[in-house]
Structure prediction request, 223 residues.
Amino acid sequence: GQNIDQPTEMTATEGAIVQINCTYQTSGFNGLFWYQQHAGEAPTFLSYNVLDGLEEKGRFSSFLSRSKGYSYLLLKELQMKDSASYLCAVMDSNYQLIWGAGTKLIIKP
Amino acid sequence: SQTIHQWPATLVQPVGSPLSLECTVEGTSNPNLYWYRQAAGRGLQLLFYSVGIGQISSEVPQNLSASRPQDRQFILSSKKLLLSDSGFYLCAWRTGTSDSDEQYFGPGTRLTVT
Prediction:
């Protein structure tokens, strides 16, 4: 079967750095996406990785290791507005997205 | 620029009643369209997707159906709602021309079946 695993919840302090991990087992791989979802709102796109390595985009970076079936989202200089759920999704061999349950990130002052 | 609309924003319906949720996309042609459901504290569950008018693929057998009567219109329906149909319904689109194309989501409809 297809499976995406993420921690359910994480807590971090404003101004700090946090790493949210995602491991996956899917039938095929055509890229991995990270989305941010604030409570009660729709998800918004953060990043896309298809090759191994680190993609940096401002305060957010995303890493992929295809051989390990592993990705992480790194958030630097945390701000209160970063409190949200972070969803990992993998595009499978049928070009459909398989979604993780999301990691709820709580930022404390 | 492209925008995606969903309505209604919230809906409370009794068990056994019908359902119709509408999604429209502006500013793009021939998008791939998706209906997802998100239960509280759960991941997104793909319900239906469409690559063109009248072309619907169902991912999960259930009492829901979808239709695409126009290029940029996607409708989710049910003849008789169940309690388990409660959730946050999200419509999304992507251009489908590249693997890296992200999906863009509408604002969602929060459905409560009582």
Observations:
- Chain B touches chain A through 19 residues (CB under 8 Å).
